C-alpha cells in the first residue's frame, strides 16, 4: 500500500468515527490527481511535448486553477531549463482571460521570449505590454537582455535612462547589469560613476554589484582600486564569488605578486593545484622566506588540504634569528580545532627539531618548549593552547622613529603617514620632556603603588579618575580570566570645564608630598607634546596643521594620564591572564613611556586568525605612540588603530600612558581626504563623548558600588567551584561558536528556524565528540545553545524512561543505540483528548499471542498522540503510552518502544501517520521544536518492546507484575521535576538580570539644573517590583539545590526498599514544580513591564523568554492539577494527625499542630522580622491553619470527593501556602551553611528576608485571616522590607552579575553586560528586513494609489 493510500485509509477511518463525512469529501482523490498534473509536466523529460492539453485538463478537473499554482509551475519549468514549456504555459495563462495578469507575469514571459525567440521578438512583446503593466520588473528584464551584448550599449543606456526617469532605480539589479556591460567595454569611468550614483541614491551594493566591480578592477589590473574596494567589501561582510577571486588572483599574477595570488587562491574551493603550481613558480623565481611559507600554508589550510600543508611545512627552513612561531601555529590551531591530539604532539616535537636545526639556544623559549612537551600534567588540549599562546610571543617589530624636533615638518609628516598606514604605531624622540622629569614621574608612581591597599582604595576610581585595583579591569571581555593583572591610577584635565566636571583625586600630601606637583608638571608637558604631534598628524592626513584645533578636538580635550603597575607574578598560570589583554585605544593618540621592561605586543592585522603578535621594545627616552579608534574613524580606516596587549613577563613593570582624546562635543566625521567614490565613509559621524560612552562599561559605577565578593557569589549560585568552572567554560565555548548564533532567530521562517535547530544539534553532537565532553559538560552545552530541540526530549525523557522502566536487557539494547544517537526518541504520552488525565488515554496495545506481538492502535481521533516534542519530524522512535490489553482484559497505561520512521530514508513506517502540530506562541521561541501528532493503524511491535521492568506479559499473554516496587516510578518523577525547578531559577534569573541591568541604565525624570536624570532602579516602586523577583531567583536556586539532594536521598531509600518518605517527596516535588514555574512565568512578564516599552521588543530577550517558558506551567503536569495532588496529600496528613503517625520531611511542622494552631507571633519591631524563627513560625502557622480549615470544611460533606470538588480553590491556596513555606525554610537553611566570601552571606540574608516578607505582604489576607500575624506586625514587615530594598539597591547589578550569564546566552540588548543599550537598539533596528529599503515593498501597488487617489484604476 502506498503512503497516500495509507493516509487516506486512516483519515477515512478517523473521520468516520468522528461522524464528519463532509470533511472526508474534501480529502478525496480528485484534488490529489489534479495536483499531480503540473508535477507530471515538470518531470516529463520530453522537451518538445506540448503542455496545453495537460493544462486544460487540469483546469477542468479543479474548475479553477489558482494563479499562484500556475506561476509556481512556470517558475519550476524555468528553473529546470524547460523554457519552451514555460513559455507555452505563460502564453496559455495570458490567453485564458480568467487570470489576473500582473507585471511579474509579463516580465517572466519577456525573459522567456528573449531566451527562446531572440531580442527582436522580445522587443515586440515588450511593446505589446500595456503601459500600466510595465513596472520595475519588466524594465529590469528588458535591460538585462540589452546588457548581454556589447553592441546593444545604446539601447541599454536608453532603457536605463528611462528607468531613472520612472524612479525605478531603487534596487541594485539594474546597476549591476550596466556595471557588468561597462566592465566588458573597459569603461572604468562609467563604472565609477554608477557606483557614485548608487551611494548618492542610497542603493546598497549587493553581492553581484561588488563582484562585478571587483572583476572590472581585476580585469583592468587596477590593483590599488581593487584592494581599496576589497577593504570596503570585507567590512560589509559580502561574500565574493569564486570567479571574482580567480580574476583578482590573475590580476596579482599579471602585476607580479605571486604571493598575493597564492593567498587569493586559498579562498577558491578546488584550487589546490593552482596553489602548488604557483608555489613551485614562486620558489623558482624568489628566495623563499617565512612570509611565503605563511601564505602558502594558510591557503592550503583554507582549502582543507592539511596533508599538503604538512608537506610544505616540512620543507620550511626557518630564517632570521628567531623561529617564527606563527608558521607552526597555523597548523597547530588547525589540529586543535579538529581535535587532532597526536598531531599536536608531533608538531611540538617538530618545533623542537626546527629549533635545534637553527642552533637556537635561547633559554626562555627552551623552557617554554620543555614545559609544553613534558606537559606539566596539563591535558593535551591545554598543552596546545599554551603552545599557541606562547608561540604568539612574537618577533620584534621595528617601528619607525620620528624626530619631533626636526624642522622638516613635511618630511616628518610623511614618515608619520607611512607609520600610521602600516603599523598604527611609531616612536617619538626628541620630544622635549626632560629625562629628569620622566624619572621623577616613575619614582612617584612607584611610591603610590607601594602604598598599603587601604590608602589606594581610598582613592578608588570615581567618574573615570582615581585608582583601579589589580584585576579590576578586563580589556578583552571574551577572556575567561578574572581580569587583567595590573593596577592603575588615572588623572586628567587640570583646568577647563572637564576639570570641573571630572575633578582629580590626589594622594594626600602628607604621604606623598611632591606627588601632585610632579604629575601636574608632567601632564602639562605631555599635553603640549601631544598637541604638537597632532599638528603633524593633521599634515600627514593632507590637512591644515591646525585642523584638530579648528574642529574643536583640542579645545578642552579629554586628556588623561594613566600610571600603571604590572606585578611580576600572576595569580594562576593555567588561565589566560594578561597584563593588559588585547584591545585598541578609543581616542586620537596615545603616548606611552615604560621603564624598559618588555611585554608590549601589537597585532597589525586584527582580521587575521590566529593573531600574529609582534614585540615592541622600549627605546630609552622615546615615546611609543599609537593611533586610537577615533583617529581611525576620521581617517576612514587608512590610519590604523592597532590591537595591542601587555604580556606578563615574570617581572614587575611600570608604565605611564597619556591618552589624548577629542573634546566630548567634537564631531568625529570621515575626512574628505580619506574617502572617495569607491571608498565611501566606513563609519557614521559620531560625537567623541558618545563614542567613548559606547566603548566603556556603562554599568562600571554600579559594579563598583557592590559590597560583596561577586566571584564568590558566582560559586554559591553555581553550587560549587567545579559547577561554576564547567558552566563558565562551556558557556564561553557556545558563545564563541558562530553556528550557535541566535540573534536573528525572530527573523527566520518556521522552516529555517527548524533547520537551524537541526544544524545546531548536529554541530553540538560533533563538538561533544571532538572535545570528549562528559555527560555534565554535554548537558551544559545543550543548555547554553538555548534553543528548544528534539535532543531535549531524547536525553531528558526518552532515555530516562527506558532507564527507569526498561529491564536490564532492554536498557542494554536501546540505550546503546540512543546514547550514540543511532536512534532518536521522544516521549509520546499526551493525546488530543487527554493530557492531565493519564488514565483516560485511549491508544491501545493489544497482545496477539499468535504472533507474539503487540498491536498498537489509535481507535479514535482523540486518541491521536498530540504534543510530544521531537515527534513531528525528527524522532525515529518513541516511548508510546497505551492501554495494555491481553486476554481481553485492560491492564491500564504502560510504555512501549515503537519505531516510527525508517532508519534508511526517514520516511514514516507503514500504518503510521506523523506530523507537526503547527506553529506555537511567539517568534522563534518553542517553534524550533517539532511537537508532533501521531496515529497508529494496527502497528505491530515485538512483545519485548513493552517496557517490562515493573510488569510484563508472558509468551502466553499472561500479565505478570514484577517484584520491583511500583514506587520506583516516583524516583524518575522526582528527578524530572527537580530539573524543572532548577530551570525555573535559571529562566527567572535571566529575566531579572535583564530587568536589573536595564533599570540601572535607564533614566527618567528627576534632572535638576541640567544634571543627570534618575536611574529608574532608584524608584521605590521599581525596587518593590524588581527586588522580590531577584530574591525569588535565589530562593528557587536554593530550593532546586535541595531538591537535587532529595532526589539522591529518594534513590538511596528506594535501593534500601524504604518507601516511607516517598509520598511526601512526591507531593513536595509536584508542589514545588507548580509553585516555581507559575511564579517564574509571571515574573518574566513583570520584568518585561519593568523594562517599559523597550521590553516589548524581541531584542530585549524577554518576549521570547516568556514564550519559551510559559508552557512549563502546563507540561510535566498542569500546575493546578499538581497543587490539587499536594492538597490531597495535605488533607491525608491532617486526617492522620491524631493517629500517632508522625508527619515527615517538609510536613514535619504539622506534627507541632497543637502549638501552631494557637501560637501568636512575637514580632514587636521591624528588625524582629529578620529573626528566622519568627518568620518560620508565621509561615508554618498560616500553612497549617489553612490546611486544617480546609480539612474541617471537607468533613462537613458526606461525600468526601464531592466536598473536595467543591473546595478546589481553597485547597489550591492551602497547597500554595505549604509550598511557599518549603521555599522559605530551605532558603533559611541555606543561610545556616558555611558560606565564605566577603559580604556574600549578608547579601543572601537580605534576599532571603525580602523573599519571605514579600510573600507575607502579597498574601497578607491569608496571614491576617488565619491570625498568624496582627495588622501591626504586617505593617512592621513592610517597614523592614523597605529597609532591605535600600540595602540591596547598591548591590543589585553585582547580584545579577553573579549569575555569570554571557551576552550570548542572555541574548538581550537591554541586559548587555556593558549596559551599552541605546546604540545597540539602533543596530538591531537596522537589521530588520523592513529597513532593507527606504521605500517599502508594496509602495507602488498599495500605498501610492492611496496617496495619489488612484484607487479606482489600481490593480489591488
Ligand atoms: C510545549 C509543550 C511541550 C509538551 N511536550 C510533551 C511531550 O514531550 N510529551 C507528552 O506526552 N506531552 C507533552 N506535552 C503535553 C503536556 O504534558 C500536557 O499538555 C499537560 O500534561 C497538560 O495536560 P492537558 O493539555 O490535558 O491540560 P488539561 O488537563 O486539559 O487542562 C485544561 C485546564 O483544565 C484544568 N484541569 C484539568 N484537570 C483538572 C482537575 N482535575 N481539577 C481542576 N482543574 C483541572 C487545568 O488546570 C487547565 O486549566 C507538552 C505540552 C506543551 C505545551
From TrEMBL:
Superkingdom as given in the UniProt entry: Eukaryota
What InterPro entries does the record tag this protein with? Answer: ACOX_C_alpha1, Acyl-CoA_ox_N, Acyl-CoA_Oxase/DH_mid-dom, Acyl-CoA_Oxase/DH_mid-dom_sf, Acyl-CoA_oxidase, Acyl-CoA_oxidase_C, AcylCo_DH-like_C, AcylCoA_DH/ox_N_sf
Sorted alphabetically, the Gene Ontology BP terms of this entry are: fatty acid beta-oxidation using acyl-CoA oxidase; lipid homeostasis; long-chain fatty acid metabolic process
Which GO MF terms are attached to this record?
acyl-CoA oxidase activity; FAD binding; fatty acid binding; metal ion binding
Give the E.C. number(s): 1.3.3.6
Q: Which Pfam families match?
A: 2OG-FeII_Oxy (PF03171), ACOX (PF01756), ACOX_C_alpha1 (PF22924), Acyl-CoA_dh_M (PF02770), Acyl-CoA_ox_N (PF14749), DIOX_N (PF14226), PPR (PF01535)
Q: Where in the cell is it found?
A: Peroxisome
Q: Which keywords does UniProt give here?
A: FAD, Fatty acid metabolism, Flavoprotein, Iron, Lipid metabolism, Metal-binding, Oxidoreductase, Peroxisome, Repeat
PPR repeat ranges, renumbered to this chain? 135-170, 171-205
Task: Give a GO cellular-component term.
Answer: peroxisome
Q: Which cofactor does it need?
A: FAD
Residue ranges constituting the Fe2OG dioxygenase domain according to the UniProt record: 557-662
Q: What class of enzyme is it?
A: oxidoreductase
Q: SUPFAM superfamilies under this entry? A: Acyl-CoA dehydrogenase C-terminal domain-like (SSF47203), Acyl-CoA dehydrogenase NM domain-like (SSF56645), Clavaminate synthase-like (SSF51197)
Which family is it part of?
Belongs to the acyl-CoA oxidase family.
Protein's name according to its UniProt entry: acyl-CoA oxidase
Please give the organism. Arabidopsis arenosa
Amino acid at each position: 500500500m502506498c503512503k497516500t493510500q495509507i493516509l487516506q485509509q486512516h483519515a477515512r477511518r478517523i473521520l468516520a468515527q468522528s461522524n464528519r463525512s463532509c470533511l472526508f469529501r474534501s480529502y478525496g482523490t480528485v484534488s490529489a490527481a489534479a495536483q499531480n498534473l503540473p508535477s507530471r509536466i515538470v518531470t516529463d523529460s520530453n522537451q518538445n511535448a506540448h503542455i496545453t492539453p495537460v493544462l486544460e485538463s487540469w483546469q477542468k478537473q479543479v474548475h479553477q486553477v489558482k494563479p499562484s499554482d500556475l506561476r509556481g509551475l512556470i517558475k519550476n519549468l524555468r528553473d529546470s531549463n524547460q523554457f519552451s514549456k514555460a513559455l507555452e504555459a505563460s502564453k496559455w495563462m495570458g490567453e485564458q482571460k480568467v487570470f489576473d495578469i500582473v507585471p511579474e507575469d509579463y516580465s517572466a514571459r519577456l525573459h522567456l521570449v528573449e531566451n527562446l525567440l531572440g531580442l527582436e521578438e522580445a522587443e515586440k512583446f515588450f511593446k505589446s505590454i500595456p503601459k500600466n503593466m510595465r513596472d520595475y520588473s519588466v524594465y529590469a528584464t528588458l535591460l538585462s537582455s540589452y546588457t548581454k551584448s556589447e553592441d546593444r550599449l545604446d539601447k541599454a543606456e536608453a532603457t536605463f535612462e528611462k528607468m531613472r526617469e520612472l524612479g525605478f532605480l531603487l534596487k541594485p539589479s539594474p546597476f549591476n547589469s550596466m556595471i557588468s556591460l561597462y566592465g566588458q567595454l573597459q569603461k572604468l569611468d562609467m563604472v565609477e560613476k554608477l557606483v557614485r550614483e548608487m551611494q548618492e541614491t542610497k542603493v546598497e551594493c549587493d553581492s553581484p554589484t561588488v563582484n562585478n566591480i571587483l572583476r572590472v578592477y581585476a580585469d583592468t589590473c587596477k590593483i590599488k582600486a581593487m584592494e581599496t574596494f576589497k577593504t570596503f567589501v570585507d567590512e560589509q561582510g559580502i561574500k565574493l564569488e569564486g570567479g571574482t577571486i580567480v580574476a583578482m588572483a590573475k590580476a596579482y599574477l599579471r602585476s607580479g605578486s605571486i604571493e598575493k595570488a597564492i593567498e587569493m587562491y586559498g579562498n577558491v574551493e578546488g584550487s589546490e593545484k593552482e596553489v602548488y603550481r604557483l608555489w613551485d613558480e614562486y620558489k623558482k623565481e624568489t628566495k623563499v622566506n617565512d612570509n611565503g611559507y605563511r601564505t602558502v600554508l594558510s591557503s592550503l589550510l583554507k582549502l582543507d588540504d592539511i596533508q599538503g600543508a604538512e608537506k610544505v611545512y616540512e620543507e620550511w627552513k626557518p630564517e632570521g634569528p628567531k623561529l617564527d612561531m606563527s608558521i607552526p601555529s597555523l597548523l597547530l590551531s588547525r589540529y586543535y580545532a579538529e581535535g587532532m591530539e597526536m598531531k599536536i604532539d608531533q608538531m611540538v616535537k617538530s618545533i623542537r627539531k626546527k629549533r635545534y636545526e637553527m642552533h637556537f639556544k635561547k633559554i626562555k623559549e627552551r623552557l617554554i618548549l620543555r614545559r609544553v612537551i613534558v606537559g606539566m600534567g596539563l591535558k593535551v588540549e591545554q598543552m596546545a593552547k599554551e603552545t599557541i599562546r606562547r608561540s604568539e610571543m612574537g618577533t620584534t617589530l621595528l617601528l619607525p622613529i620620528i624626530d619631533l624636533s626636526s624642522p622638516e615638518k613635511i618630511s616628518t609628516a610623511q614618515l608619520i603617514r607611512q607609520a600610521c598606514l602600516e603599523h598604527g604605531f611609531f616612536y617619538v624622540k626628541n620630544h622635549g620632556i626632560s629625562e629628569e622629569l620622566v624619572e621623577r614621574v616613575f619614582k612617584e608612581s612607584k611610591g603610590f603603588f607601594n602604598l598599603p591597599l587601604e590608602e589606594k582604595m581610598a582613592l578608588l576610581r570615581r567618574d573615570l579618575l582615581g585608582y583601579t585595583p589589580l584585576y579590576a579591569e578586563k580589556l578583552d571581555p571574551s577572556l575567561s580570566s578574572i581580569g587583567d593583572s595590573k593596577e592603575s591610577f588615572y588623572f586628567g584635565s587640570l583646568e577647563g570645564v572637564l576639570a570641573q566636571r571630572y575633578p582629580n583625586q590626589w594622594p594626600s600630601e602628607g604621604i606623598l608630598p611632591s606627588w601632585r606637583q610632579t604629575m601636574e608638571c608632567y601632564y602639562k608637558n605631555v599635553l603640549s607634546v601631544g598637541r604638537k604631534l597632532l599638528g603633524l598628524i593633521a599634515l600627514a592626513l593632507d590637512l591644515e596643521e591646525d585642523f584638530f584645533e579648528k574642529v574643536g578636538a583640542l579645545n578642552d580635550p579629554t586628556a588623561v594620564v594613566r600610571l600603571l603597575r604590572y606585578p611580576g607574578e600572576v595569580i594562576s598560570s593555567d588561565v589566560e591572564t594578561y597584563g593588559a589583554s588585547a584591545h585598541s585605544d578609543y581616542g586620537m593618540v596615545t603616548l606611552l613611556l615604560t621603564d624598559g621592561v618588555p611585554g608590549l605586543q601589537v597585532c597589525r592585522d586584527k582580521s587575521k586568525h590566529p593573531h600574529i603578535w609582534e614585540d615592541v621594545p622600549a627605546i630609552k627616552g622615546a615615546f611609543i605612540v599609537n593611533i586610537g579608534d577615533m583617529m581611525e574613524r576620521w581617517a576612514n580606516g587608512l590610519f590604523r588603530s592597532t590591537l595591542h596587549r601587555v604580556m606578563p613577563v615574570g617581572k614587575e613593570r611600570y608604565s605611564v600612558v597619556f591618552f589624548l582624546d577629542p573634546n566630548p562635543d567634537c564631531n568625529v566625521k570621515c575626512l574628505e581626504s580619506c574617502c572617495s567614490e569607491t571608498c565611501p565613509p566606513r563609519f557614521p559621524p559620531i560625537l567623541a563623548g558618545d563614542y567613548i560612552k559606547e566603548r566603556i562599561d556603562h554599568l562600571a559605577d554600579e559594579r563598583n558600588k557592590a559590597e560583596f565578593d561577586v566571584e564568590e557569589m558566582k560559586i554559591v549560585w553555581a553550587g560549587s567551584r567545579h559547577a561554576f568552572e564547567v558552566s563558565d567554560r562551556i558557556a564561553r565555548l557556545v558563545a564563541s561558536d558562530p553556528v550557535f548564533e541566535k540573534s536573528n532567530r525572530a527573523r527566520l521562517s518556521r522552516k529555517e528556524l527548524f533547520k537551524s535547530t537541526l544544524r545546531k544539534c548536529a554541530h553540538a553532537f560533533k563538538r561533544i565528540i571532538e572535545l570528549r565532553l562528559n555527560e555534565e559538560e554535554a548537558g551544559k552545552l545543550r543548555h547554553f545553545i538555548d534553543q528548544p530541540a528534539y535532543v531535549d526530549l531524547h536525553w531528558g525523557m526518552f532515555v530516562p524512561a527506558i532507564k527507569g522502566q526498561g529491564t536490564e536487557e532492554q536498557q542494554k539494547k536501546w540505550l546503546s543505540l540512543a546514547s550514540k544517537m543511532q536512534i532518536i526518541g521522544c516521549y509520546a504520552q499526551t493525546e488530543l483528548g487527554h493530557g492531565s488525565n493519564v488514565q483516560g488515554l485511549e491508544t491501545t496495545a493489544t497482545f496477539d499471542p499468535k504472533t507474539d506481538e503487540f498491536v498498537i492502535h489509535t481507535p479514535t481521533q482523540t486518541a491521536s498522540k498530540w504534543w510530544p516534542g521531537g515527534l513531528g519530524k525528527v524522532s525515529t522512535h518513541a516511548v508510546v503510552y497505551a492501554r495494555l490489553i491481553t486476554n481481553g482484559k485492560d491492564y491500564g497505561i504502560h510504555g512501549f518502544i515503537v519505531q516510527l520512521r525508517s532508519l534508511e530514508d526517514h520516511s514514516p513506517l507503514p500504518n503510521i501517520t506523523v506530523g507537526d502540530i503547527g506553529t506555537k506562541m511567539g517568534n522563534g521561541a518553542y517553534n524550533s521544536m517539532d511537537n508532533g501528532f501521531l496515529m497508529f493503524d494496527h502497528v505491530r511491535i515485538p512483545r519485548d518492546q513493552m517496557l517490562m521492568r515493573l510488569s510484563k506479559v508472558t509468551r502466553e499473554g499472561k500479565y505478570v507484575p514484577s517484584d520491583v516496587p511500583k514506587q520506583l516510578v516516583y524516583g524518575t518523577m522526582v528527578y524530572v521535576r527537580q530539573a524543572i525547578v532548577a530551570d525555573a531559577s535559571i529562566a527567572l534569573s535571566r529575566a531579572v538580570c535583564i530587568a536589573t541591568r536595564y533599570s540601572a541604565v535607564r533614566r527618567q525624570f528627576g534632572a535638576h539644573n541640567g544634571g543627570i536624570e534618575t536611574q529608574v532602579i532608584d524608584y521605590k516602586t521599581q525596587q518593590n517590583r524588581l527586588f522580590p523577583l531577584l530574591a525569588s531567583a535565589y530562593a528557587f536556586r536554593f530550593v532546586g539545590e535541595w531538591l537535587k539532594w532529595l532526589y539522591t536521598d529518594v534513590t538511596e531509600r528506594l535501593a534500601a526498599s524504604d518507601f516511607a518518605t516517598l509520598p511526601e517527596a512526591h507531593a513536595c516535588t509536584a508542589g514545588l514544580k507548580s509553585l516555581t514555574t507559575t511564579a517564574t512565568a509571571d515574573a518574566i512578564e513583570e520584568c518585561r513591564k519593568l523594562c517599559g516599552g523597550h521590553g516589548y521588543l524581541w531584542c530585549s530577550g524577554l518576549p521570547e523568554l516568556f514564550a519559551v517558558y510559559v508552557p512549563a506551567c502546563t507540561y510535566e503536569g498542569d500546575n493546578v492539577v499538581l497543587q490539587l495532588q499536594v492538597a490531597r496529600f495535605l488533607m491525608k496528613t491532617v486526617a492522620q494527625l491524631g493517629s500517632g503517625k508522625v508527619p515527615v520531611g517538609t510536613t514535619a511542622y504539622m506534627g507541632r499542630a497543637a502549638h501552631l494552631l494557637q501560637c501568636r507571633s512575637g514580632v514587636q519591631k521591624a528588625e524582629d522580622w529578620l529573626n528566622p524563627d519568627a518568620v518560620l513560625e508565621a509561615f508554618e502557622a498560616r500553612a497549617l491553619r489553612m490546611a486544617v480549615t480546609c480539612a474541617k470544611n471537607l468533613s462537613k460533606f458526606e461525600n468526601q470527593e464531592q466536598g473536595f470538588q467543591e473546595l478546589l480553590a481553597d485547597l489550591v491556596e492551602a497547597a500554595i501556602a505549604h509550598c511557599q513555606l518549603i521555599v522559605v525554610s530551605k532558603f533559611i537553611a541555606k543561610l545556616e551553611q558555611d558560606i565564605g566570601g566577603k559580604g556574600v552571606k549578608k547579601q543572601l540574608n537580605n534576599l532571603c528576608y525580602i523573599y519571605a516578607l514579600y510573600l507575607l505582604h502579597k498574601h497578607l489576607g491569608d496571614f491576617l485571616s488565619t491570625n498568624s500575624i496582627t495588622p501591626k506586625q504586617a505593617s512592621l514587615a513592610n517597614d523592614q522590607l523597605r529597609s532591605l530594598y535600600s540595602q540591596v539597591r547598591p548591590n543589585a547589578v553585582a547580584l545579577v552579575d553573579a549569575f555569570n550569564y554571557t551576552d550570548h546566552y542572555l541574548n538581550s540588548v537591554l541586559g548587555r553586560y556593558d549596559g551599552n543599550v541605546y546604540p545597540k537598539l539602533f543596530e538591531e533596528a537596522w537589521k530588520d528586513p523592513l529597513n532593507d529599503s527606504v521605500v517599502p515593498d508594496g509602495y507602488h501597488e498599495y500605498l501610492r494609489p492611496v496617496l495619489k487617489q488612484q484607487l479606482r484604476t489600481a490593480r489591488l
